[in-house]
Amino acid sequence: MKLLFLGEIGVGQTSLMRMRAFARMGHEVRGVNTIEPWKQASWLQRRVQRKLQRGPVVDEINRAVLEAARDFRPDIIWGEKQEYLWADTIRALQVFGARLVHFTPDPYFSLYWKRTRLMDAAMGEFDMLVYCKRYEQAEYEALGKPLIYMPLGFCDEVHRPLPSSDPRWHCAAGFLGGWEPRRERLLHAVAASGADLKIWGGYWDFLRDGKWTLRRHVILRQLAGNDHDWRIHRDDVLARAWQGNEVYDDDYAHALTGARIGLGFLRKVVPDQHTTRTFEIPACGSMLLADRTDEHREFFEEGREAEFFASTDELLDKLAYYITHDEARRTMAEAGRRRCIDGGYDYLSRLRGVLMQLDGMAT
């Protein structure tokens, strides 16, 4: 089968991992990196065109997709987070006879800054919609298109135990992810408890100098959502724990493997019940300690394959216990990794299931 993949297929991106998974299944895959035209534009050009949702970058994305489909003649066109495709482009793609599928690993309807007028108009033109946020199911159903629910997952090529002798990756507790007020409060409590904590991720840099800038304020205000109990400030405790911005590929696996306990803090700007880290942490051989949610408890048996918490006190109590009980921690980490593999939480298994459902709907 020939599959045209549209998405952000750069280094470390989960879209690239899913595109590779399709190829590893034996399908003939061609990719269109629809984020690349944005990278070629200046900051001002990006900001203006994203605001207006029109301009040379948007034109180039739509042109590149149509040209690739015309040249490749795929059986399936799989689009990921295609906020800048025109509805006319989707209708034009239908002429090639391919089934059109859209998937986004992020919330779409729940965050105004994730939505675009273009995608609102275009989403209903796809033949099939794949979603991973159950709390957005009603919005997807309202579009009147066939739906497939696919939880997030992990890539077995990237997310695997990868020990390193470099001490910079070693810690008792590790967190990989961007800033959010609740995450900051939880991580401050972890660091203040004396736990050996390391953090990798974006937008934590203000904690080092505490300086207010307009850019910081705009970004952090957006990430904070309805949480108004925050301010730009300095935090020497967390500044020492923060190791830098995002890490990718083997460094990502080094960081997760090197953390004896991986912290899986969900964002509260949306009602997420699982994220990619839900699976990536145990897949890399670290023990998952995450928010207690119904979905987390569906994926892993609490107390045997992962541990969960519902309060800061419970988080700190469980962290202190497993830091000092290595055998219990190792046993749980091993059981969590086995559940990832046996449960088919990897992208290969997830996407095979989607294609089977897609084939069933076509018959």
Short description:
The protein has helices at 14-24, 36-40, 43-52, 56-72, 87-94, 117-122, 137-141, 181-192, 206-209, 214-224, 236-241, 249-258, 277-283, 294-299, 312-324, 326-342, 347-362; strands at 2-7, 28-33, 76-80, 99-103, 128-131, 147-149, 171-176, 197-200, 242-244, 259-264, 287-291, 307-309. The protein has 363 residues and is of the alpha/beta class.
If you compute it from the alpha carbons, what radius of gyration comes out, rounded to the nearest whole angstrom? 21 Å
In DSSP terms, counting alpha (H) and pi (I) runs of 4 or more, how many helices? 17
Strand fraction equals: 15-25%
What is the annotated CATH architecture of the largest domain? 3-Layer(aba) Sandwich
Please state the average pLDDT score.
Answer: 96
Strand order of the largest sheet: 2-1-3-4-5-6
Largest sheet descriptor: 6 strands, parallel
- CATH topology annotation of the largest domain: Rossmann fold
Number of domains: 2
Catalogue the unreliable spans: none
Shape: globular
Topology as a string of helices (H) and strands (E): EHEHHHEHEHEHEEHEHHHEHEHEHEHHH
Task: Give an overview of the whole structure.
The protein has 363 residues and is of the alpha/beta class. It is 45% helix and 15% strand. It has 17 helices and 12 strands. The protein has helices at 14-24, 36-40, 43-52, 56-72, 87-94, 117-122, 137-141, 181-192, 206-209, 214-224, 236-241, 249-258, 277-283, 294-299, 312-324, 326-342, 347-362, and strands at residues 2-7, 28-33, 76-80, 99-103, 128-131, 147-149, 171-176, 197-200, 242-244, 259-264, 287-291, 307-309. It has a 6-stranded parallel β-sheet with strand order 2-1-3-4-5-6, sandwiched between helices. Strands 9-8-7-10-11-12 form a 6-stranded parallel β-sheet. Strand 4, helix 6 (117-122) and strand 5 form a beta-alpha-beta unit. Helix 1 crosses helix 17 (347-362). The chain is globular, with a radius of gyration of 21 Å.
